[in-house]
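Our consortium's second objective concerns turning raw sequence data into structural hypotheses that experimental partners can test. To show how far this objective has progressed, the report includes one record in full. It was chosen at random from the queue rather than selected for favorable results. The single chain below, 290 residues long, was entered without modification.
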Amino acid sequence: MSIIYNNGDYQSDQQAKVSIYDRSFLFGEGLFESFRSFDGQIPFLKDHLNRLEWSSTFLNMEFPDDLDFSKILQNLLTQNEIKEARFKIVLSRVGLSCLDMTIDPTSKLDAPLKTNILIYCFPLSKNLPQATYKLKTIKNFTNDSLPISTIKSTNYLVKSMAKRSAIESGFDDGILLNKHGNVTETSTANIFWIDEDAKLWTILPEQGYLSGVMQKKLKDCLDKCKINHKEGVITPEQLSSSREVFITNSVIGIKPIVAIDNRQISGGEIGSITTMLMDNWEKYLKEICN
């Protein structure tokens, strides 16, 4: 059992409820952010909130800018008696509009829609991922519906299907492609690769994917360490031939990839450059948290 925040109240996750008219439930019309704490600290909270606010503007959703998110998150850590936690903030709306004719033909588009605010808090140690991942290329649907692909919405069907397909096939995550057959991201993370000339790359944003907070912060770390990096376009075949590959998100950090489809990466081991980057990231993180 975990204590969560539900529209102003701290409740057990077993007792919390949402409306049957929640538009995230009905239409996938909602937003979320996932991140973690490090020994009770949440170093990149501002970046996650900025992205959440930008996304809410895109969806014309009221953002609760008067809410002290930092205080709420610290209260959740205290009430759950943990320091290493995974958080998930969810914003959704409750209400009908004239677009919902099958539900209420008399409803009006300008009817006020209440914003729901849920914040989940779970111990991270119970779900620590393994040291390395294997990826499967997902080819039966694409992931480049700009600009929707650039916001973190609760309409997660494509990524959920990709993740399930990968796991059912014995992999850990799925690689999503755009309509041109180029790599965009995985269902849960951004992708970096190291080519045969030992150059570090990540995907051009124009390829259609969600730019991650961890991706951005890693670039900041690379700049501070004077490590060159570029953005580019890559096919799944080229990616699987890379010298090293790793993925990033705000919960798992840097996760080395040891196989793509049926092809090993870096001999099935964590590559030396990825190891160096992981060490630099840990030092960078400690500096920020201290």
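The partners drew two points from this record. The domain at 3-127 is CATH 3.30.470.10 (D-amino Acid Aminotransferase; Chain A, domain 1). The mean pLDDT is 90. Both points have been shared with the crystallography group to help prioritize constructs.
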